[in-house]
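lol ok so funny story. i was supposed to be doing the assay writeup but got distracted and ended up predicting the structure for this chain instead. priorities right. anyway since i did it might as well share w the group, maybe its usefull for someone
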Amino acid sequence: MSLKISYSSFDFECGTDEAGRGCLAGPVTAAAVILPLDFKNEILNDSKQLSEKKRYLLRPIIENESICVGIHHIFESEIDTINILNASIKAMHGSISQLKPIPQHIIVDGNRFKAYKTIPHQTIIKGDSKYLSIAAASILAKTYRDDYMEKIHEEFPMYNWKQNKGYPTKEHREAIKEYGITKYHRKSFRLLPEQYKLDI
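and the output, tada:
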C-alpha cells in the first residue's frame, strides 16, 4: 500500500510524530514536516518498518525536499513533571512551532493530541504507515533522538544506550539494577519491574 501525500485539501499540511515515548532514559523527541504536494519517495515508510541504514539515508532527502521541518526534545525532568503523554504532545507542539510557513492543517500519528493554536488537526491511528508527512516526521524524530542517545552513551557506556537507545531491554534493566540510575533516567517510570514485587 503506498502512502498518501495529504489528508486535507490544504497546500501546507504538516505531519507530526514522536519517538522515545516508551523509553526509560533520555528525551521524548518529536518532528513536524510539511512536504510539497508533488513529493514522491519509494522507500519512505513508518520508521519502525525501516532499517537504521534506510532511516539515515532518508533523513537528508526529507530535510532537503521538505518545505520545512521542525525537531523538538522534551527532557527527563520535564517528562517526570508533566507525564509522558503531555510531554509527547508538548514536543510535537514545539516542533510545529518551528515551521515556516505556518501549517494550515496538522495530522498526528496516534489518537491523542491537544489543539495547537487555532490550526485544525486530525489524529490518525497508524498514521505513520498511511501518510508520507507523518512517516517523514517519524524518521526525523527517531534519528535525532538516536543521535542524542549515542552522544550520552559516551558518558554512561555501561547502559549501552548506543544499542538500546534507552528502551527497556533486559540489558538496560540489568545495568540499572547494577549501577542505579543516572540524571538521564526518567524517575517517574517503573525502571525495574521488581521494584513493586516483594520477595516472599
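The chain has one domain: 13-188. Confidence is low (pLDDT under 50) at residues 196-200.
back to the writeup now i swear
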